[in-house]
Amino acid sequence: MVGSDGAMIVRMLVTIPSFALHGIDAVPCDVEVAVQSRGLPRIALVGLPDAAIRESIERIRSALEACGFDPPRHRVTVSLAPADLRKQGPGFDLPIALGLLLATPVGGGGGAAGGGAAGAGAVQPGAPNPGEWMVAGELALDGTLRPVRGAVSMAMLARARGARGIVVPYENGPEAAVVEGLDVRVAGALDEVVAHFRGALSLRAVPAVDVRAAVAASEAGIDFRDVRGQAAAKRALLVAAAGGHNALLLGPAGCGKTMMARALPGILPPLEPDEALEVTRILSAAGALHGGRSLATERPFRAPHHTASTVSLVGGGAAGLPRPGEVTLAHHGVLFLDELPEFGRSALESLREPLEDGFVTIARAHGSARFPARSIVVAAMNPTARGNRRGGDRGAREESAYMDRVSGPIVDRIDLHVEVAAVPIRLLAAAPAGESSAALRGRVAAARAVQRARQGEVLNACLRGGALDAHAALDTDGRRLLEDAVEQLGLSARAYDKVRRVARTIADVAGAARVAPEHVAEAIQYRVLDRAA
After folding, report:
1. Overall pTM > 0.90
2. What are the Cα distances from residue 464, in Å, to 371, 412, 524?
3. What's the CATH number of domain 463-533, 1.10.150, 1.10.20, 1.10.8, 2.60.40?
């Protein structure tokens, strides 16, 4: 192109595919870098970037100099497309820097032609096409790469879009490698990435992770045999695990409620490969893959403190796009709410929809995000604020006042209300007894296999409408028994359906094809708080 003064205007455009994290999902975002030889030297960044992205220009300048590259001396426009999607986070540092170097004419004042930096010089024949690779990474001032959130979601997006592969920092390589069928390359610094795309070297490939083998090698934590006594509570948690039901443990302090809740993940079936990948994706998006872990191989167990805020429980954030909360981090696992009445009222009320629907939608002015939240919620509470019961009218008033801290709709959404008694001293001193977690896991797996053969991947706790009527049909005696319970206990329509679902699970645990009156009777017994009311 020729300018008005007759001088040649050189304009180069490079596009580097990357991604923006929207909740736990990766959204495609192309980093377009246009370098024009005419005009005052400046870098214009457009496309709704947040503060972290706007500050990336200074980090990129320092990283370029540290790696032996000259900062751009041209008029540069960096566009994050699509322009109407708000972007956040430092993961765009690497694709922006790479685009600047690949778009700047070598020897034209913007590259490191003739310098000693790796990757200096022109693009060699056979070099990888940057448009076929998805790139993300945060730059340190010395040019080294730091990990970013959402590498698993990025890898899944790249595979879905048919990309050749992805380039991420070393720390993100193992977690991205859990996605099969994708070439994952890792780098430690900016100059290595530039050299890769100029054909001077090939970045190290990360071998794929065998998800099924990694999950099979995981081990359970607390064994149910170590819990002294509490046969009725163990039975209730077996039913909860078999059908995916929520449970509330009500009993005095020190009777083993917390220990049983922590042992519950050990009797759940091992994660399926797709479940392990989904849990890993959630942890990756939340930046919660710690300790060098690349894959979630065990059912998650989350136990937020009772001072947790509404945002920390269900997700959200003061600025930018929403982030997942504890109810999502516990997806496919257990969310334990110890000292239930001590949680803030608004925080507990925010759990109504996740408990009912299995997902949570967070809406903000800049956009909304939907997070999965299908976990077994186990709540525990003492009968009074003192931790134990006290007889007489005063004790009854204390129990009622303490229970009033939890709203009726929340209690109604919990399938099993289990009364846990204090453990006699003779049992505390006795040797461990009862079924082990391995044996209970086998019974849970057998019950879930029956459900899967009958109704697909839908657990009994999720049966609705016609499916519930078809798979949890009651005979005449069972229907009459449940009708009497509804009249005497004042059960709601929601509690009526929950009793039917729990009865169906009890029948599955027993190996019964149909729901019998004794299964209905046991399910009614798990409505302790309805009986108290």
Report:
1. no
2. 21, 16, 19
3. 1.10.8
